[in-house]
Amino acid sequence: MSNAVEVGMLKGRPYGGVMCLIHNDLRKFAKTMYTNERCAIVRLFNYIIINVYFPCAGTADRQLICDDLLAEIDSLWQQFEMYETIIAGDFNTSLDSTDVVAQAINNFLTKRKLVRADGLFLTAKAPTYVNEALKRSSTIDYVVTTTP
Predict the structure, then answer these.
(1) Whole-angstrom Cα distance, residue 47 to residue 20?
(2) pLDDT tens for each residue of 1-31
(3) How far apart are CA 48 and CA 21, in angstroms?
(4) Separation CA 101–CA 104 (nearest Å)
(5) From CA 61, how far away is CA 96, in angstroms rounded?
(6) Across the chain, where does the E strand assignment appear?
(7) Which uninterrupted H or E stretch holds 77?
(8) What pLDDT sits at residue 9?
(9) pLDDT confidence of residue 15
């Protein structure tokens, strides 16, 4: 990102990122535990909320970035094992696909015994992106949790 900013003004939506919005009434109970450009971790009561932004298809070194992000989350997880966990965000892949990033994420979910929220309810599986003009839709945004 810093290299791109040095080149000149950015236009449009050139980069993603993460942030967590906490309602003012809950802010005094929330504590930011960790942040970087692809991950933000907040503790709220007995929950750890991890907001993620995985690289999209076509990103240089996508698999490496994904593996690094999963390893980073896995490493941080050891500090937070006593909390219930929610991971939410832009996974930038369909977790039902055979994409290598989807496989890496699914392996992580299995290892950490995380459950996809879209699988908990019969009507929950729905596209998270819809463009009616282009007749396109996809499911690349997810919420997973340690407890169903």
Answers:
(1) 14
(2) 455 545 566 565 556 678 888 999 999 999 9
(3) 14
(4) 5
(5) 22
(6) 30-36, 39-44, 47-53, 84-90, 115-116, 129-131, 136-138, 141-145
(7) helix 62-77
(8) 63
(9) 62
Q: In the chain, what are the helix, strand and coil shares in percent, each to the nearest 5?
A: 30, 25, 45
Q: Could you report the per-residue pLDDT of 19-68, keeping only the tens digit for each?
A: 888 999 999 999 999 998 899 999 999 999 999 999 988 889 999 999 99
> Residue 117: how many CA atoms within 13 Å on its side-chain side?
13
pLDDT of residue 12: 52
CA angle 57, 58, 60 (to 5 degrees): 115
Average pLDDT over every residue of 107-118: 92
